[in-house]
């Protein structure tokens, strides 16, 4: 079968506001027909906590603790619960809803796109599989992502290894997600508000059995670049595509920076709920 050519954007480490602005700009460009579908990889510097589009900050996120850790809060375009982006590889997929073979439903499009993640884990020698929850997913009041895997998220040894979120705007699917290399559970749970320390510690201990990072399940520690290379190959194989590097022009980069400052660096957007 003939492979389609998609753009590949390797952003390296960027600020939380820049990362979310870049995803939105790429969505707009693809919607306008200026660029083909895109796979993007990036890291976070400083570390960030992204909250879901509909998620409340007040009473859920410990903003002072985030500031003390030097963690910047940003609101995503996608839904779901808060994610700490620290020692991880983050991916974004931007593709038209009309792309040949792309399922119409969110659940099935998750499955197709997540083939790239499955193959990426295989490339690292990690046996991952799709999560297929039994019955209806249990919903909790927790604001923490990685508590429970959703349909077709990736699990390793029964624990969630990658968390993803998806939205559809302007005829384009944006799916992005977090692939932790290492996980600091103390820091993570310090970022959320609990009734008391006893409840917080109980939640943290329960969480330990539900989530896993790459370096917990490999024989030798993997770096950001190791993981990036593996998942690039994984997406090419899993989606049957060729990825070609895309470098933004000076003007395009200026547009991303402008959006990062006016929207994603703006408290009105980030703390509005």
Automatic annotation (TrEMBL):
| Keyword Signal (UniProt) | no
Task: State if Kinase is listed as a keyword.
Answer: no
A Pfam family of this chain: LplA-B_cat
| Entries under SUPFAM superfamilies matching the protein | Class II aaRS and biotin synthetases
| Keywords of this entry | Transferase
Per the database record, which ranges form the BPL/LPL catalytic domain? 33-243
**CDD domains registered for this protein in UniProt:** LplA
The alphabetized list of GO BP terms reads: protein lipoylation
- Molecular function terms, GO-annotated: catalytic activity, acting on a protein; transferase activity
- Please give the PANTHER family that the UniProt record associates with this protein: OCTANOYL-[GCVH]:PROTEIN N-OCTANOYLTRANSFERASE, OCTANOYLTRANSFERASE LIPM-RELATED
Q: What is this protein called?
A: Octanoyltransferase
> Which species is the source of this protein?
Aquibacillus halophilus
